[in-house]
Amino acid sequence: MGKPIGIFDSGLGGLTVARAVHAALPAENLVYLGDTARVPYGTRSAQTVIKYAIGCAERLLSFDIKLLVVACNTASGVALEALQERLDIPVVGVINPGARAGVAATRNRRIGVLATAGTVASGAYERAIRVENAAVQVFAQAAPLFVPLAEEGWTTGEVPRLAAQRYLQPLVEADIDTIVLGCTHYPLLFETIHDVAVELLGHDVAIVDSADATARALSALIDTGPAEDRGPGELRVLVTDLPGQFGASASRFLGKPVEGLDIRAIDL
Ligand code: DGL
Question: Least packed by Cβ within 10 Å: which of 15, 108, 147, 192?
Fold first, then answer.
């Protein structure tokens, strides 16, 4: 059996990244760790998120992972360097691929980023986009209510539309033509965010999902060596708490039922 790719997130939202990685690299084994006991990371200080991220990464190392994906945007924003310095394996975050895809998509060089308060405060998307193209202007907007809405499965209808109108207004005033979804949870609200943005802007908008962008970056990076080094493409899920809502919530992010998945509760 091939060495797995480790993926961690503050909770179950990063299953959107696991899903995109599995779609791009179906033969790779994945070990996903969701720190469900300590979610959310998006409202915590950088020091705390760094400490939690190191704990998650160290646990995944015990599964002999060949590469680590930091699926959480907040952890990618504040802890990527600390993890890269500490680990001997490649560590990939979601922010650089999302930033690159945003720069490729914009025509008027004005990008809106929707993310958690922690990611916005880190300035990580601004830095990553500046590296790609210093002429691009970035307008970052915290959209904290999207996290519980996605967890509840309230992804369309009046409530998420109202939240989207509020969060998108400053980006519309900034005349962006591209929105980067800089949070694990936001791809579930893709349709609402897109429709409300188009209504408010009066023209189409490009929406970049950092989960997909990361999966594409990973396919370019991963060792495509002998087939026996990979497979059979299984997904193991570790969580630090197994709440009652686990099945419903996890299947929303994963896009399929979780029955039959290897799910284990662990302590960190
Ligand atoms: N996983 C987080 C992120 O992508 C969202 C949820 C949280 O705040 O922990 O930023």
Answer: 108
